[in-house]
Design brief:
By secondary structure, the protein is mainly beta. It has helices at 12-16, 22-25, 144-149; strands at 35-37, 46-47, 50-56, 62-68, 76-78, 90-92, 101-106, 113-120, 127-132, 140-141.
Length: 158
């Protein structure tokens, strides 16, 4: 068994085995392709290898942002000039134009607004991914339940 650090409770995984990070346990590569979906109209957001969003800057200008649709690949392009430290006014579905902003939730890294959309890997169930809308911020989260759903069937734990 692993010795827990003082002041830090051990998780059940740490009590049973030295668990590697989720992405290693699940055989998910850092550049795994994510199929993205609008949580409102259920339309697909992918165009080729990009997820496409309608964005609104602080001057009220509307444009399109295309973000690499791969896990932890942060390549992006936009039809609007967006500074790295700029927090967008809104992020919307390009199909139904409904805001993807999560009301009342803020990024744990820098306090910015968060946008939520659904993702799938292969034929998995749609999972909710929440991401900061500041271009330079790399923070995102999923619920513990959705995180565990990412573990693929051929994982050695199963």
């Amino acid at each position: 068994m692993k010795q827990k650090e003082p002041g830090r409770p051990a998780s059940w995984e740490e009590e049973v085995w030295d668990a590697p990070p989720l992405m290693k346990r699940s055989h998910i590569n850092h550049d795994t392709y994510l199929t993205c979906w609008c949580p409102h109209c259920q339309a697909g957001l992918n165009q080729g290898d990009r997820a496409v969003f309608e964005i609104v800057n602080n001057q009220g200008q509307v444009g399109i942002s295309k973000i690499a649709a791969y896990l932890n690949v942060l390549d992006q392009e936009s039809t609007l000039q967006v500074d790295d430290d700029e927090e967008l006014a809104d992020v919307r579905c390009p199909h139904c134009h409904v805001s993807l902003i999560e009301p009342g939730h803020r990024c744990k890294q820098d306090g910015c607004k968060l946008a939520a959309f659904h993702v799938t890997i292969s034929n998995s169930k749609r999972l909710k991914l929440v991401s900061c809308i500041r271009r330079s911020c790399r923070w995102y989260e999923m619920s513990d339940e959705d995180n565990e759903r990412l573990i693929l069937r051929d994982s050695h734990e199963w």
